[in-house]
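Q: Got a minute? One more chain.
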Amino acid sequence: MEEKLYFYYTNDLHSNFEQWPRVVTYLNEARTLRNKHGELNWTIDIGDHVDRSHPITEASMGRANVRLLNDADYDFVTIGNNEGITMSHQDLYHLYDEAAFEVTCANLHSTDNIQPPWLRPTVKIETAQGLRIGMIGLTAPFNAFYELLNWHVSPEFEVLDKYMKDLEQYADIIIVMSHLGITVDQEIARRYDAVDAIIGGHTHHLLRTGEYVNNALITAAGKHCVYIGEVILTWDHKQKRLVKKEAYTTDITHLEKDAETDQTLRSMQKKADSLLGETVVQIDRPLDVNWYGSTPIVQELANTVMEWTKADAAMLNNGLLLEGLPVGAVTYKDIHRICPHPINPVVVDLKGNELIEVVRASLTKEFTQLELKGFGFRGKVLGRMMFAGLQVETAFHNNGEEYVKQVLFQNGAPIDPDRTYYIATADTFTFGRLLPEVAKSDSKHYFVPEFLRDLLAQTLRAKFSSNQA
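A: Always. Here it is, folded:
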């Protein structure tokens, strides 16, 4: 006798709530069909459902996301880095207090040894037919952030070595819920013959019909729930083994929105507007934003960041602010709207010659006009860099390209090419190759849980309030 097991999954929604009612429509229809035929099915989320760039998530500190997962009848969830490192320790500790699903993440640990009651390293399922399924969740080890928040994420292979023997002894089928990214998923498949399927995410890769590595079927459904994933495992009870593994992704952008979910989101938005509606400051002049020119509000924010972090200098890109502010009351909702990014301040060590190279790179056309997606950035383009504590003199080539003639400190002191300086900036630049010298710095000190928009609120109060004497 053969039996099919159905696993529906989502990954990397990033609070793209415009799409969520379609997710619910798809899941309701799919599960209704499976239940009608008596077929076993489970619904899973692979993390980064939360993203504080959305006001509903910001106002509820992720609790609204958990309610949406509850309402959609999810069974199992693992956490992504957006759940893990964009909140304070206490906010993450209590994030899933009201969850109606099981949360598995085997490599996340509280450094005070007081683990949240909802956190499970593995999940074990036994069906009515006696089939045993073991699941383990894993998240990406961003420990430079986690450890500042009193969490630690253990290396994934160390954790798999710890739990795999137990899972092999218990389970007929082993599934890894992985918020680790495609290359790590492939390595897990190569190292562990007992893994049958890896349901993945984090790197926003789309595997339309899965990928087979060693004995494992690897899957992922892109980002923002444009697609929903489905894994079908066929178990032969007579042979006592899996005889078929299938993976599919379905584009759901054409589906009708679930009306009840849509109404829930409208109510959540109204509540978020109220919670974020407190006035931060009154301003008596408009504050304009020019992504490619001088922007006083970003200049003052860079000054605040330099002072707050006690750095030698600071640099922030104008694209951090999506728009300006008109005269009048400025609320937390306004600040969140113009600066939605889950980006923290960071101080990096740079030699003087590296600092000069970073300044040069940040003022190139390629940098300022880059339409970045990811690394926490939720804007349109990076924009021109603004500097605090530095004098940057530029000129133009005959072809119109701008170049840096000289970089000095604000007091006119020259930069020593061999001396180490402490430079504050956005943590975005510590990832990838946007500014290689920053990314490769041996010393990075992240400031958490404060986002740059928290310092923006502070800057507005201190520098732009109409109540200033």
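A: The mean pLDDT is 96.
Q: Perfect, thanks.
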